[in-house]
Structures are given as C-alpha cells and as structure tokens.
Design a protein that fits this description.
Blueprint: H1 4-18, H2 29-46, H3 48-56, E1 59-84, E2 87-114
Antiparallel strand pairs: 1-2
Length: 122
C-alpha cells in the first residue's frame, strides 16, 4: 500500500493532538477525588452486584473520562483516584498505545476493585 507511511504519520499527528492535555479541562486533585467518589456511589446505587463487590474490596481505583482515539495507531489517557475506606488515598493516571485496524474517538470510565492487600498499597 503506497499510502501506508502517510497514513501512519497522519494518525500519529491526530492521536497526539487529541490526547494533548488541555488546561481548560484539567481537574484539580480534589475534584478528581470528589468526582471519583460520586461516580462510585452512582455505580453502587445502580448496580447491586458492584455494591456487593465494593463491600468486600480493600480498595477501588476509579478512572473518569478516559479519552481513547486513533486511526491505525491509537492512544488513550485519563486520570483517576484510589479510594480506600471511603477516602482518597492517591491519584493516578493511565496511558496506553495501540496499533492495528482502528478508527475513532471514545470516552469512557472504569472502576477496578482490589480484593486483597497486594500491589495497590501506596
């Protein structure tokens, strides 16, 4: 395919532009912690199974507004908080890259439940 190098370069440029941090959208650590707790409470109120798992969990990592985008080459980034005993124990970010047949932009959130005292300890 004679346009492969051009498409690859274009996709890298677009992915870099999409994933650039924007000072106008950046949340403070306190806002991230509050939003993570609110999202976790919403999850518990709408999903009884999540509430059961949450009661047993030692900690929960909540990532809000993860942005993923790409065209052949992609990337994702987002910020989150680690919640232990209903208190924010730390702030984290997630970053990933991928390649392959992909086109688009996606925003999503997720919660990760830690069921033992393993590697999440800060």
């Amino acid at each position: 395919m004679k346009y492969a190098p051009l498409l690859t370069a274009l996709s890298l440029v677009l992915t870099t532009i999409v994933l650039q941090p924007s000072p106008g959208r950046a949340a403070s650590a306190g806002e991230i912690g509050q939003n993570a707790k609110a999202a976790l409470n919403t999850l518990y109120s709408t999903n009884p199974a999540a509430r059961v798992v949450g009661r047993k969990a030692k900690a929960v990592s909540v990532f809000l507004r993860i942005i993923k985008g790409g065209f052949l080459v992609g990337g994702q980034a987002g910020n989150g908080a680690l919640i232990v005993n209903d208190r924010t124990a730390g702030y984290y970010n997630t970053v990933a890259a991928s390649y392959g047949f992909q086109v688009g932009l996606q925003k999503f959130s997720y919660a990760m439940f830690f069921m033992n005292d393993g590697r999440w300890r800060t």
